[in-house]
Amino acid sequence: MFVGKTSFHMLTAFLTGYDQHALRHGGRGLTGWHDWLVARRGRDCNHAWPGQVLHIALPNGWDDVWSLPPGDEQHATRVLFELLDEFAAECEAAQGARFSD
């Protein structure tokens, strides 16, 4: 709804904007997201978090990050939301554990 065309790049641009806005206004944003993805993947590379998501979603690689085939684009988008849900759940659980101590 907020990105016009559903594409992996439009979603990552939207999420980057969300992150920057949240951080600028005192929120947590996506703090820890990149490190969480690197740990989830089990190895680091020089890609920012969108590249880390693509590595997880498309472990056999991709030819052109700007022109993913429709099936890969849909899969990467689905995996992005699954990973975000997991990350958010872990962050909420960790925050809840801190408040219950």
UniProtKB/TrEMBL annotation:
<protein>
    <submittedName>
        <fullName>Uncharacterized protein</fullName>
    </submittedName>
</protein>
